[in-house]
């Protein structure tokens, strides 16, 4: 494994360790009972983990490059946030356990939000907001917009938790943690969610490429983003002569990069915003942030098996539009029906022109595709490198099917088209 990959692989665990050990070391209690010391250590460790979780929600290209990509950052963001919550829940319990042997009343007062004034009330309010935000992360049926707003309650919970410490008269290391937490939250809201980090683009062309899918060409109005085939960008579409975009940033894969730095994205109607985008027209303003992702970067020289589901074809299309493949490559393109198969005529032409590329285009109907009907038999995969892109459910099924065919995880690369 090249050094850089090891550094990237270790980056987040080391960052989380430092963010946890720092406050614990700084405020390590001395001369207190074991239960009280544990309560205090749990509190600081929880704070440190929350800080790390906030850093891992930032969407900056340089940061995602160092930390192994946005999807990996989100996975750790969730994990670290959950552990932080458990530690912060245990924190008051350990403090109450310390008081219990001498005075059950004091133990209750330590816990009760009604007795020891605002400091404890703020602590409970913070825990309640963290609980609400975390509960929402599991409620995948919630609309994405409501899910996002409930997620914001987590950020407020963090700030209230730190205010709880200030109310207890604890300043060191609360103030630096509070400053960093406010910086990360402000950075995400101002620079990323409100689009300051994004570049202005103009919709130059929009063409339907299948039922419910449109390909949009975007011309840079200022310095263009740098993107490589297979990468994705966060795009927000605003108003045009008759079009009103939803103005939210959504991830879309760059399906081609023009010599004149125009980029194209293919958008399939999968929800409110993408349905609205089907009616987009030239002249609509957009903001583009990116590019992100390393899905198809640094592909080994071995034979390639590419598995694309629905609009998950876009990263592979970008690579094929950029030129002929350099290794024997089999592209399996799965779609519900011929009418949904975006870019199929173009892919057929590309496969006809490229002797190293073989295309299997399969209409699977509404049933989940059966891997045995299109995956090569175990012995035939040899040391192929496998690349999967599409809806998370399809990716999970195919990863499993490849594993049972003896392909080890190191040779299975995937991009989920859903961050949640
Ligand atoms: C790395 C990546 C690359 C993608 N590339 C493409 C592409 O090339 N073409 C394409 O059509 N689709 C692509 N998608 C999927 C696309 O982002 C979603 O379909 C779109 O965001 C749905 O928004 P909506 O408002 O229409 O639907 P909603 O009903 O709001 O959301 C449907 C689902 O889309 C996801 N989603 C919604 N909003 C966001 C958001 N702001 N950020 C992240 N996920 C969100 C959620 O998982 C949600 O459950 C990609 C997704 C990812 C993660």
From TrEMBL:
Chain segments annotated as transmembrane: 7-28, 34-58, 79-97, 117-139, 146-167
InterPro entries, A to Z: FAD-bd_8, FAD-bd_FR_type, Fe3_Rdtase_TM_dom, FNR_nucleotide-bd, MRET, OxRdtase_FAD/NAD-bd, Riboflavin_synthase-like_b-brl
Main location group: membrane
Record has Oxidoreductase as a keyword: yes
Bilayer disposition of the protein: Multi-pass membrane protein
CC terms in the record's Gene Ontology section: membrane
Cofactor: FAD
The keyword Signal is assigned to this record: no
Gene3D superfamilies in alphabetical order: Nucleotide-binding domain of ferredoxin-NADP reductase (FNR) module (3.40.50.80), Translation factors (2.40.30.10)
GO molecular function: 2 iron, 2 sulfur cluster binding; flavin adenine dinucleotide binding; metal ion binding; oxidoreductase activity
Localization per Swiss-Prot or TrEMBL: Membrane
Residues of the FAD-binding FR-type domain: 196-298
Keywords assigned: 2Fe-2S, FAD, Flavoprotein, Iron, Iron-sulfur, Membrane, Metal-binding, Oxidoreductase, Transmembrane, Transmembrane helix
PANTHER family, per database record: 1,2-PHENYLACETYL-COA EPOXIDASE, SUBUNIT E, NADH OXIDOREDUCTASE HCR
The name this protein goes by in its record: Ferric reductase-like transmembrane domain-containing protein
